[in-house]
Write a structure and sequence with these properties.
Low-confidence stretches: 232-247
Distance between the termini: 11 Å
Radius of gyration: 22 Å
Shape: globular
Number of helices: 11
Largest sheet: 6 strands, mixed
Structural class: alpha+beta
Helix content: 40-55%
Strand content: 15-25%
């Protein structure tokens, strides 16, 4: 795909990396997501940090969660799972301890202070045996006992409306995964959910809850998942899924693309290159989103505040 004269390179990213990337592009989106998952009430201007995990040390790769955001000084451990496994309580405990050891542990010769992050596991697929919460029962040697409940989100339990209401679209973009395997009995529900999900993304973009370029990427992810769920033979669609969904998706980093546009503007010797580059990136984002949302060239011109001729020329290149 050529955008603004620059080729957009696809990347292979797994679902947990897509989620982290989606959130890391917008602090307000991250805060809304954390509030929706944990029922918190964090201010929209709170500080958001993304703490390192695998890159810290190879020896830690088995004890770290998919992501460790720290929002308003509080650390979270978010784990994305394809389905529920019997050892999740143990694994999430290990991930929480691993995150604490990496990022919130101080020690002297005689004293240890460790803060456990708030954990959560998201199940993209689930069965009747997938837990809706995890329980930690910890018994200390001095007879003190601690029982902690760890929230678990089973995506299949949510409706698209609830996902949108709770600002969970960063995981909602994977919602169609809950229909696997897709059978003829699920076709109508699948199509209804897909239409509703696309509308939820469109509404979130229009309400500026989701940035333009992130909205584009959510739609790309949804389309890739739809294609993986349905097996196409010429003009017919076989709605019986016989193989697992591919766990990696072709992904375009639009932010990286816009940065290249800025760099090109600077390289061309424009004193105002950075400002023009950002403006061009934002313009392209609006044009692409308008087209993805199914708007006409005339509607895109009005929304992007651009001449109709410029809009038509962009999509003809």
């Amino acid at each position: 795909m050529i955008i603004g004269g620059i080729e957009a390179q696809p990347h292979q990213l797994s679902y947990d990396k897509i989620l982290k990337y989606t959130l890391s592009q917008s602090n307000p989106l991250t805060i809304q997501f954390i509030n929706g998952v944990f029922n918190d009430n964090i201010s929209q201007d709170a500080l958001v940090e993304w703490l390192e995990k695998e890159s810290t040390s190879d020896k830690h790769t088995a004890i770290v969660a998919d992501s460790y955001p720290r929002v308003d000084g509080k650390m979270y451990a978010i784990e994305i799972e394809q389905d529920g496994k019997g050892d999740m309580a143990v694994r999430v405990f290990r991930y929480a301890i691993g995150g604490a050891m990496l990022h919130s542990m101080t020690a002297t010769k005689s004293e240890l202070h460790i803060t456990i992050p708030q954990p959560c596991v998201v199940f993209l697929k689930s069965t009747i045996n997938t837990p809706s919460e995890l329980t930690w029962n910890i018994d200390f040697f001095d007879d003190q006992k601690v029982t902690l409940k760890v929230p678990a989100i089973r995506l299949a339990d949510l409706s698209v409306e609830e996902i949108a209401r709770r600002n969970l679209l960063p995981i909602g973009q994977f919602y169609l995964r809950t229909f696997e395997p897709l059978t003829k009995r699920k076709v109508d529900a699948f199509q209804t959910a897909a239409a509703s999900l696309f509308k939820a993304v469109k509404d979130a973009v229009e309400q500026e809850i989701v940035p333009y370029h992130i909205g584009l990427q959510m739609r790309d992810t949804i389309l890739e998942i739809m294609e993986n769920i349905t097996i196409k033979y010429k003009e017919e669609v076989d709605f019986t899924m016989t193989t697992d969904i591919v766990e990696t998706l072709s992904w375009i980093d639009y932010k990286e693309l816009f940065q290249k546009i800025e760099e090109r503007a600077k390289a061309e010797g424009k004193a105002e290159g950075e400002a023009k580059g950002k403006a061009e990136g934002e313009k392209i984002g609006k044009l692409l989103m308008g087209k993805e949302l199914g708007l006409t060239d005339e509607q895109i011109a009005v929304a992007a505040e651009l001449p109709l001729e410029e809009v038509k020329a962009f999509f003809c290149q």
